[in-house]
Specification:
Blueprint lengths: L1 H12 L4 H15 L6 H11 L6 H13 L3 H13 L5 H13 L6 H18 L4 H11 L10 H10 L3 H7 L1 H22 L11 H10 L1 H15 L5 H19 L5 H34 L2 H12 L3 H18 L2 H18 L4 H14 L8 H9 L4 H24 L2 H11 L4
Helix pairs in contact: 1-2, 2-15, 3-15, 4-14, 4-15, 5-6, 5-12, 6-7, 6-8, 6-11, 7-8, 7-20, 8-20, 8-21, 9-18, 9-19, 10-22, 11-21, 13-14, 15-18, 16-18, 17-19, 18-19, 19-21
Length: 429
């Protein structure tokens, strides 16, 4: 299997699309193992996409597109501006708060970053903010949605690693809030450094804030309803995806009355485009994952790490370093599908809660969307803002520091991650 992994990395380096790189390298494993029936290759491709839990992914993507076209996002922008207009780099702060609020709506860091660049980017440059600064803020703040439920990455991790998705959803709330606060601090420092002054000297009065919250109440209720309904057994995570679609349609048609057939058609088309790539990657990753298990790669890696260190903190930092490097070259979905079945047995043996590790892992690998050389969100935001990737990366340094600080908090204070899921579900280890 190591030869297939090396082959996969070479294909990525040569520029082959990720889905085909996974398929080709997985196919090469079967060529080197003639004793394995070829029917397994087809079975694994199909079975990966037919998981009942995996249904949550297309449903949440569709729900996110519906909410972006029904006035939910516009109201969240207004609420964010009311809350942060008095801070340094006010529109940059709007991006941070909006990402935190949008976590329960989009669930995708790349989609969130692109959406915010299109909505907030032109206004930022109009006010004299550097295009690279605007791209960096909108790109990096999108990382917050990696933890705020319902995160697509957490659904994938929970499904493949056989970890409670409900616990993962609840566990992501506190780290998401911590990341929001630290990114607001980083944005404020950066804005102060470049002279991006607040919109107004004083916060809005409480009456205005309350009114903005009421206008956005349907969006704010969404993640809360999901967690409550899953926790009390009313629906499974997959069924909650169907509920999300119904909720988005209900709000768009009957509450905000902004959904029409043209917008609905656009949502369907955009969702199909998003899902076509994801489904191909999911299908071909089944072949790849089979090779990982067949060659007992998790056991080999576990023995190697045990020989290297017996400290769980040293192990965590080694894994964080490894995942950071992976994130610089591979897509988040691919990393999650490939390394989750390898790493969950390893961290469990070291006494690390898989829920705790899942939040750390998804934060790190999602950060890869925003890092060179192949960060999808980084290139997307730079392209939207018409600036060089190097310029965006330079302005993003304070935000990378905020992300690193968030990860350190999660590593050394695991109760910050596990307190809420233990409170809601009880202790698991």
């Amino acid at each position: 299997m190591l030869y297939s992994i090396a082959f996969f990395l070479v294909l990525l380096f040569l520029g082959m699309p990720v889905a085909f790189a996974i398929a080709t390298s997985g196919f090469s494993f079967f060529l080197m193992r003639p004793e394995i029936p070829w029917t397994i290759l087809v079975q694994k491709s199909l079975s990966t996409t037919q998981s009942f839990t995996m249904l949550a992914i297309p449903l949440f993507i569709f729900a996110g597109n519906l909410m972006n076209n029904t006035g939910v996002t516009a109201r969240l922008v207004k609420l964010s501006n009311v809350l942060t207009g008095h801070m340094w780099g006010s529109i940059g702060q709007v991006s941070v708060v909006l990402s935190t609020l949008m976590g329960g709506v989009s669930g995708s860091a790349v989609a969130d970053a692109a959406m915010e660049c299109r909505i907030l980017g032109p206004e930022m440059t109009k006010r004299g903010y550097a295009p690279g600064w605007a791209a960096a803020i909108n790109c990096l703040t999108g990382l917050i949605v990696a933890t705020i439920p319902p995160s697509m990455g957490l659904i994938l991790y929970g499904t493949i690693g056989e970890v409670s998705i409900g616990r993962l959803f609840v566990a992501g709330i506190m780290p998401g809030i911590v990341m929001c606060i630290l990114m607001m601090v980083a944005t404020s420092w950066s804005a102060h450094h470049y002279g991006y002054v607040p919109d107004h000297a004083h916060p809005y009065p409480l009456k205005t804030i309350v009114k903005a919250c009421i206008d956005s109440i349907w969006a704010l209720m969404f993640p809360i309803l999901l967690i409550v309904l899953i926790r009390f057994g009313v629906m499974t995570p997959s069924e909650s995806g169907a509920f999300a679609v119904f909720y988005a349609l209900f709000v768009g048609v009957f509450i905000y009355k902004e959904m029409n057939m043209e917008k609905f058609r656009k949502c369907v088309v955009d969702s199909v485009k998003d899902l076509s790539v994801i489904t191909m990657i999911l299908a071909f990753s089944g072949i790849f994952s089979y090779g990982v298990v067949f060659d007992q790669l998790p056991r080999t890696l576990t023995n190697a790490l045990i020989a290297m260190t017996d400290s769980k903190y040293a192990l965590l930092f080694l894994l964080i370093l490894m995942l950071t490097v992976f994130g610089m070259f591979m897509e988040t979905t691919v990393i999650t599908l490939i390394v989750t079945p390898i790493l969950v047995p390893v961290i469990t043996r070291y006494g690390i809660d898989p829920v705790h590790f899942g939040i750390i892992m998804m934060t790190i690998v999602t950060m890869g969307c925003s890092t060179p050389p192949v960060g999808v969100a980084l290139y997307t935001c730079s392209d939207i803002m018409h600036c060089k990737v190097e310029e965006t990366t330079k302005y993003a340094i304070p935000l990378f520091i905020a992300i690193a600080a968030t990860v350190l908090v999660m590593v050394f204070f695991p109760d910050a991650v596990l307190f809420l899921p233990n409170l809601v579900y009880g202790t698991s280890m």
